[in-house]
Amino acid sequence: MTPRAIYVEIEISAPIEKVWRRTQDAAQHSRWDLRFSRITPAEPDASGVQSFTYARRVPFHTVEGVGVSIGERSRPDGSRTSALKFFTRDRISPIRAGRGYWRYLPSADGGTRFITGYDYTPGWGHWADVVARPVLGWATAWSFDRLRIWIERGDEPEDWPLRSVLWFWNPRRPRAARCRRSPEGGPRRGDHLRDAPATLASLPSPEAAR
Questions:
Q1: Is 14 helix (H, G, I), strand (E, B) or coil?
Q2: Ranges of the chain with pLDDT below 70
Q3: CA dist., res. 113 & res. 14, Å (int)
Q4: Phi, psi of 150 (to 5 degrees)
Q5: 3-class SS at 92?
Q6: Where are the beta strands (DSSP E) in the chain?
Q7: How far is Cα 84 from Cα 41, in angstroms, rounded to an integer?
Q8: Strands 6-12 and 38-41, how do they pair?
Q9: Cα separations (Å) of 175 from 20, 43, 95, 166, 178?
Q10: What pLDDT score does 209 carry?
């Protein structure tokens, strides 16, 4: 892993339970998250670890991989977390293996701060990752704002396809710029997994879990 982990944070005017439901539903995930075309979960094991497969369609090819995740729905401070590890052997993928988390923090006004931090081993080599990593960071932030719009306004994610990035005349379109790309007071480039939930370290490798 690198000291250039990706960090994205957005404020959503909705209670944690609503944000949790929308983001933890694997069948809905690919509707709002640009990074995935399909996620298929298995039943959780006795410890709560859930295996899944994922796919991302690109022109003339579909990248497929495997992953494991675990969620914490009730923490003493009222927050929630979800941790995951993922892996693919596909040479077309810009990501070979990675790990990350989602954190749900209650806001004083009843809203939710939805945060992710993740890092990965590049699939195309470190030089190509100079281009790929900013694109992945942008895609994550844009997807988070599309999620916010779905939760707050009720606009279906399909109302805002990727091409809506070019709808400059529409101020209601999703925009990556609405997200914070670094922790408050912290650098954009850094070890954003330093504050990951302890459950991340306890997850098995995705291959071993299958």
A1: coil
A2: 1-3, 208-210
A3: 9
A4: -60, -45
A5: coil
A6: 6-12, 38-41, 50-58, 61-72, 80-87, 95-106, 112-122
A7: 12
A8: unpaired
A9: 21, 35, 24, 10, 6
A10: 54
Q: How far apart are CA 30 and CA 117, in angstroms?
A: 19
Edge-to-edge strands of the sheet including 95-106?
A: 6-12, 112-122, 95-106, 80-87, 61-72, 50-58, 38-41
Whole-number Å distance between alpha carbons of 50 and 40: 10
Nearest to 191 by CA among 182, 204, 200: 182
What integer pLDDT is reported at residue 191 of this predicted model? 79
pLDDT reported for residue 192: 85
Sign of CA dihedral 107, 159, 67, 25: positive
Q: How far apart are CA 6 and CA 133, in angstroms?
A: 8
Structure tokens at 68: 């494991």
pTM score? 0.93
Beta-bridge partner residues of 82: 71, 102
Residues 46-100: tens digit of each pLDDT: 999 999 999 999 999 999 999 999 999 988 889 999 999 999 999 999 999 999 9
Tokens representing residue 179 in the block:
């997200």
SS3 43: coil
For tokens 């003493």, what's the residue?
76
In terms of C-beta density within 10 A (0-12 exposed, 13-18 middle, 19 or more buried), how is residue 175 classed? Answer: middle
Q: How high is the pLDDT of residue 2?
A: 53
**Per-residue buried b or exposed e for 93-104, using 16+ beta carbons within 10 Å of the residue's own CB:** bbbbbbbbbbbb
